[in-house]
């Protein structure tokens, strides 16, 4: 019966998931119940129930940005912040170490990683990218299954008044493959609470074994579902509340390890609960969303939201309502917590969310420009009381959303135009060219996500050349990895013949001054100019000069001028694209530019023919360029800070940077100490914190000759030369009397720099090694990456602190001591490889070395003690017999440095008898002669007792 019911319910649930309807559109409040509670009242009732009736401590929601946990993109469940408790690594000095029973309402984002609901959002009526999770926890066995189930049942049926017959529960049916038994205990608890047997179902690990990510704490769970149909017929179930019994940890190798203690971890989606209590089948028909839906209707002047899904939702208007309402909540919450739309990781996900919202609002709902930003105050109004950080940052949220919306709209318009133009050239059965799709997404300027391009094509009924696209993606990956470890490979070059020919023809060097034409907008963003130029010469891959190139050809392009920065002075080349003037719909991707004898050669793949004399317009990839500017200014600050810390004679020996990281080689007598590394970071942070102006100016080389403190590398500089000075105008910096170059960073440099230092954000040195005698290579990251490195460092320091505390408590148990020793090993590996501050790595490595030694000594002592005890026992038991056959387990005694070895023992005894001995740590033999055998045996016994 149970099995067939389970199968039926599983089918139902699957069907339910496929069909996004929550059973219909009508609102049916429970007739005899009090009027539907507001979301605020529902949230409050949850918290006060656990605080007042069951003695839980209330804790605030953690930020949606995971702190020091690189395994997550966003916080996806209430339990995330308690992970150190589950893993037993919580710092015993922290407040969290004292948590026994707590409850909260946690902001969760499920838009990436293991829990990703982005695709469902808009299509169904129960999934959001941002939602609130109500949860209660019992740590270290404070209470377990029975109390957890009882409290949940009491809250739902008595406090919220949900009829019992509308609730169904599921429990873990076991997983023979993983050796996990069914959780019959939970089943019996539900039956004892009066849940009707037909409403108790079991499922496998897919449904009822909860995991936070690919690694981390996990365990069997029991879930409470609500039947939306409620007519006694086939149930339509939606999951309301998940009660997880955390007992294991999923290790990196995929195995399950038991945790030292057991814990209760529960989570219930507030939006779904409110929908149930407000008698509706959709989370969107609640007071959490209706103010947003109203604002959308008013702002766009569209027909009202009707709650339709799937095919019934003609023109996808209702889906658009839902996507926009959902996404603006996610954007607001994330930005308030410091995750802003950006280029990689969680920021990139957020950028996609923003762009998805813009598309639906403008294309389906015909929203006016700036519309998304206008919804932010509505979000703040509905959620600001529960999460005050939204109020605090509301102006910043509006600004960021509006800026990004405007940028995307411009790209979208251009992208649409390019697609239309391309389609006109295609035959009816042609695939859409991969190069065009790729070029739409390649550049930070257009930056249309590929999936969006595909969607736009799908709407036009055209198919994309996916195989071609996969090839391009692979090439891009290879190119990136080359950029990350700078170019051994030289790319297209002008050979001596080509150079000679250009000089003979009197072609002037490329004017690349437009690379410096960018400015700072009042809002803080950078504005980059475009550049129009003429094609002077084309080259094939083997360097032959040609007058034209054909479709699909990789070629070198020489122009009269350019705004591309060609790789030099340690700064990576720009990338971007160019278009032919008059034919803006064909993008020529330019992955790099190189300088040869004053000429700048652009590498390009021509999607169309191109010939000498053509006029082109150049666009650099702005995100990439900005990344280089950030790292280059950071490199100057680092150079300056090193001199401040190590002395004025400190010499730079080389550097290289790209948007991912910077590398800096410095002449040193000895490796930097952790204190010096910290001091260097501190000096850079100070300069960043002051957000100083960065001055750049070209001056006659002669003016730079005798300026004390001015930095230049041992290389040939052009005349005039560019001077980059932080905080002091160039003229003043070069004034011999000012001594300014001794007090701030002043360098000769042709790189492109930030106009103010603040945008560096932060700098962390994450690696340091000796390149050769006297040269130290430093690796550093900036901005968001630096923040993350600090958080990872802090998290690891806490883990090491907690491990030290556990060790100092001592243990009488060998297994426990061995586990601790293994933990030290695991921590050592983590510290060795993490991207974290180098000074902290060194400190933690030193601490861990001591701890590891102490842990090993502790094990040896315990084992030696045990072995001695066992030996005594054996001797006692067998004192009469001539022979002992038994085992003594001494794992660590056979390790590398046992104090008491068989060989040493034999040697001690035999040399006493004038003989010799040989053997290993565990078996030995020897010879000797003596008249007094008793004395020899006494020696042997005395030696052994002394060692044990
Ligand atoms: P579902 O199967 O419905 O996606 P889940 O198994 O992913 O849910 P859990 O990870 O157990 O959900 O999360 C606990 C609770 O959080 C769920 O019972 C549900 O009430 C709520 N919840 C989960 N995902 C979402 C979401 N994307 N939007 C709104 N609420 C959610
Ligand atoms: Mg889910």
From TrEMBL:
<dbReference type="InterPro" id="IPR023033">
    <property type="entry name" value="Ala_tRNA_ligase_euk/bac"/>
</dbReference>
<keyword id="KW-0820">tRNA-binding</keyword>
<dbReference type="GO" id="GO:0005739">
    <property type="term" value="C:mitochondrion"/>
</dbReference>
<comment type="subunit">
    <text>Monomer. Interacts with ANKRD16; the interaction is direct.</text>
</comment>
<dbReference type="GO" id="GO:0004813">
    <property type="term" value="F:alanine-tRNA ligase activity"/>
</dbReference>
<keyword id="KW-0436">Ligase</keyword>
<keyword id="KW-0832">Ubl conjugation</keyword>
<keyword id="KW-0862">Zinc</keyword>
<feature type="domain" description="Alanyl-transfer RNA synthetases family profile">
    <location>
        <begin position="37"/>
        <end position="792"/>
    </location>
</feature>
<protein>
    <recommendedName>
        <fullName>Alanine--tRNA ligase</fullName>
        <ecNumber>6.1.1.7</ecNumber>
    </recommendedName>
</protein>
<dbReference type="InterPro" id="IPR009000">
    <property type="entry name" value="Transl_B-barrel_sf"/>
</dbReference>
<dbReference type="InterPro" id="IPR018162">
    <property type="entry name" value="Ala-tRNA-ligase_IIc_anticod-bd"/>
</dbReference>
<dbReference type="InterPro" id="IPR050058">
    <property type="entry name" value="Ala-tRNA_ligase"/>
</dbReference>
<keyword id="KW-0479">Metal-binding</keyword>
<keyword id="KW-0648">Protein biosynthesis</keyword>
<comment type="similarity">
    <text>Belongs to the class-II aminoacyl-tRNA synthetase family. Alax-L subfamily.</text>
</comment>
<dbReference type="GO" id="GO:0000049">
    <property type="term" value="F:tRNA binding"/>
</dbReference>
<feature type="binding site">
    <location>
        <position position="632"/>
    </location>
    <ligand>
        <name>Zn(2+)</name>
    </ligand>
</feature>
<keyword id="KW-0547">Nucleotide-binding</keyword>
<dbReference type="Pfam" id="PF01411">
    <property type="entry name" value="tRNA-synt_2c"/>
</dbReference>
<dbReference type="InterPro" id="IPR018164">
    <property type="entry name" value="Ala-tRNA-synth_IIc_N"/>
</dbReference>
<keyword id="KW-0694">RNA-binding</keyword>
<feature type="binding site">
    <location>
        <position position="636"/>
    </location>
    <ligand>
        <name>Zn(2+)</name>
    </ligand>
</feature>
<dbReference type="InterPro" id="IPR045864">
    <property type="entry name" value="aa-tRNA-synth_II/BPL/LPL"/>
</dbReference>
<dbReference type="InterPro" id="IPR002318">
    <property type="entry name" value="Ala-tRNA-lgiase_IIc"/>
</dbReference>
<dbReference type="GO" id="GO:0008270">
    <property type="term" value="F:zinc ion binding"/>
</dbReference>
<keyword id="KW-0030">Aminoacyl-tRNA synthetase</keyword>
<dbReference type="InterPro" id="IPR018163">
    <property type="entry name" value="Thr/Ala-tRNA-synth_IIc_edit"/>
</dbReference>
<keyword id="KW-0067">ATP-binding</keyword>
<comment type="function">
    <text>Catalyzes the attachment of alanine to tRNA(Ala) in a two-step reaction: alanine is first activated by ATP to form Ala-AMP and then transferred to the acceptor end of tRNA(Ala). Also edits incorrectly charged tRNA(Ala) via its editing domain.</text>
</comment>
<dbReference type="Pfam" id="PF07973">
    <property type="entry name" value="tRNA_SAD"/>
</dbReference>
<dbReference type="InterPro" id="IPR018165">
    <property type="entry name" value="Ala-tRNA-synth_IIc_core"/>
</dbReference>
<feature type="binding site">
    <location>
        <position position="753"/>
    </location>
    <ligand>
        <name>Zn(2+)</name>
    </ligand>
</feature>
<dbReference type="GO" id="GO:0006419">
    <property type="term" value="P:alanyl-tRNA aminoacylation"/>
</dbReference>
<dbReference type="InterPro" id="IPR012947">
    <property type="entry name" value="tRNA_SAD"/>
</dbReference>
<dbReference type="GO" id="GO:0002161">
    <property type="term" value="F:aminoacyl-tRNA deacylase activity"/>
</dbReference>
<dbReference type="GO" id="GO:0005524">
    <property type="term" value="F:ATP binding"/>
</dbReference>
<feature type="binding site">
    <location>
        <position position="749"/>
    </location>
    <ligand>
        <name>Zn(2+)</name>
    </ligand>
</feature>
């Amino acid at each position: 019966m149970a099995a067939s019911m389970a199968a039926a319910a599983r089918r139902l649930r699957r069907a339910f998931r496929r069909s996004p309807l929550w059973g219909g559109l009508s609102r049916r409040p429970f007739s005899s119940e009090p009027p539907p509670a507001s979301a605020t009242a529902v949230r409050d009732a949850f918290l006060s129930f656990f605080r007042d009736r069951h003695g839980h401590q209330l804790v605030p929601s953690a930020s949606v940005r995971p702190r020091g946990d690189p395994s997550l993109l966003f916080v996806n469940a209430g339990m995330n912040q308690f992970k150190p408790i589950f893993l037993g690594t919580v710092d015993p000095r922290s407040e969290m170490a004292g948590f026994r029973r707590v409850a909260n309402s946690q902001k969760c984002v499920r838009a990436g990683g293991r829990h990703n609901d982005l695709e469902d959002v808009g299509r169904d009526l129960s999934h959001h990218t941002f939602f609130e999770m109500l949860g209660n926890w019992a740590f270290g066995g404070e209470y377990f299954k029975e109390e957890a189930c009882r409290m949940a049942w009491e809250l739902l049926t008595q406090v919220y008044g949900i009829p019992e017959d509308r609730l169904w529960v599921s429990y873990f049916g076991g997983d023979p493959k993983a050796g996990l038994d069914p959780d019959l205990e939970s089943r019996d608890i539900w039956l004892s609470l009066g849940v009707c047997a037909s409403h108790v179902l079991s499922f496998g690990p897919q449904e009822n074994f909860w995991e936070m990510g690919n690694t981390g704490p996990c365990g069997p769970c029991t879930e409470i579902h609500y039947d939306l149909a409620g007519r006694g017929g086939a149930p339509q179930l939606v999951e309301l509340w998940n009660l997880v019994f955390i007992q294991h940890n999923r290790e990196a190798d995929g195995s399950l390890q038991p945790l030292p203690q057991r814990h209760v971890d529960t989570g219930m989606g507030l939006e779904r609960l409110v929908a149930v209590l407000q008698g509706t089948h959709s989370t969107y028909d609640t007071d959490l969303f209706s103010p947003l839906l109203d604002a959308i209707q008013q702002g766009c002047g569209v027909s009202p939201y009707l709650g339709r899904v799937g095919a019934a939702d003609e023109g996808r208007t209702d889906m658009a309502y839902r996507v926009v309402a959902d996404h603006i909540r996610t954007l607001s919450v994330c930005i308030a917590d410091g995750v802003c739309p950006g280029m990689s990781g969680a920021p990139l996900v957020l950028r996609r969310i923003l762009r998805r919202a813009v598309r639906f609002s403008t294309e389906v709902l015909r929203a006016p420009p700036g519309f998304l930003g206008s919804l932010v105050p509505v979000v703040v109004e509905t959620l600001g009381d529960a999460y005050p950080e939204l109020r605090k940052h509301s102006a910043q949220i509006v600004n960021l959303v509006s800026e990004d919306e405007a940028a995307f709209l411009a790209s979208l318009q251009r992208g649409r135009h390019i697609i239309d133009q391309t389609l006109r050239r295609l035959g009816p059965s042609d695939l859409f060219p991969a190069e065009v799709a790729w070029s739409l997404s390649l550049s930070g300027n257009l930056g249309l996500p590929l999936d969006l391009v595909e969607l736009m094509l799908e709407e036009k009924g055209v198919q994309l050349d996916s195989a071609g696209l996969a090839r391009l993606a692979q090439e891009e990956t290879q190119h990136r990895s080359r950029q990350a470890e700078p170019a051994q490979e030289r790319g297209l070059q002008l050979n001596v013949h080509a150079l000679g020919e250009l000089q003979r023809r009197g072609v002037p060097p490329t004017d690349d001054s437009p690379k410096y034409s960018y400015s700072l907008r009042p809002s803080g963003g950078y504005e980059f100019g475009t550049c129009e130029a003429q094609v002077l010469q084309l080259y094939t891959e083997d360097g032959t000069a040609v007058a034209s190139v054909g479709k699909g050809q990789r070629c070198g392009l020489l122009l009269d001028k350019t705004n591309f920065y060609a790789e030099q002075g340690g700064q990576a080349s720009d990338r971007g694209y160019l278009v032919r003037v008059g034919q803006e719909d064909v993008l020529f991707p330019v992955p790099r530019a190189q300088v040869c004898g004053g000429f700048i050669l652009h590498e390009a793949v021509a999607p169309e023919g191109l010939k000498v004399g053509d006029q082109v317009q150049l666009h650099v990839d702005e995100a990439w360029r900005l990344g280089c500017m950030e790292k280059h200014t950071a490199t100057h600050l680092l150079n300056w800070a090193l001199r401040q810390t190590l002395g004025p004679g400190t010499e730079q020996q080389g550097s290289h940077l790209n948007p991912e990281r910077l590398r800096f080689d410095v002449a040193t007598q000895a490796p930097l100490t952790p204190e010096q590394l910290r001091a260097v970071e501190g000096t850079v942070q100070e300069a960043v914190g002051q957000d100083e102006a960065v001055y750049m100016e070209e001056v006659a080389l002669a003016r730079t000759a005798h300026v004390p403190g001015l930095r230049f590398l041992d290389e040939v500089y052009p005349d005039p030369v560019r001077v980059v000075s932080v905080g002091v105008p160039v003229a003043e910096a070069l004034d011999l009397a000012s001594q300014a170059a001794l007090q701030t960073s002043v360098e000769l440099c042709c790189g492109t720099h930030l106009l103010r230092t603040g945008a560096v954000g932060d700098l962390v040195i994450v690696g340091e090694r000796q390149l050769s005698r006297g040269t130290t290579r430093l690796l550093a990251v900036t901005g968001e990456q630096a923040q993350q490195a600090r958080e990872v460092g802090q998290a690891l320091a806490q883990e090491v602190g907690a491990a030290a505390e556990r060790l100092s408590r001592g243990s009488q148990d060998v297994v426990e001591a061995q586990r601790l020793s293994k933990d030290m090993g695991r921590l050592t590996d983590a510290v060795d490889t993490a991207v974290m501050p180098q000074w902290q790595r060194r400190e933690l490595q030193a601490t861990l070395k001591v701890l590891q030694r102490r842990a090993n000594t502790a094990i040896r002592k315990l084992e030696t003690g045990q072995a001695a005890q066992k030996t005594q026992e054996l001797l006692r038991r067998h004192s009469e017999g001539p022979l002992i056959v038994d085992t003594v387990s001494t794992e660590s005694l056979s390790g590398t440095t046992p104090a008491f070895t068989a060989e040493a023992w034999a040697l001690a005894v035999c040399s006493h008898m004038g003989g010799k001995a040989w053997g290993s740590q565990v078996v030995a033999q020897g010879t000797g002669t003596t008249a007094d055998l008793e004395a020899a045996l006494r020696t042997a016994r005395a030696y052994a007792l002394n060692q044990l």
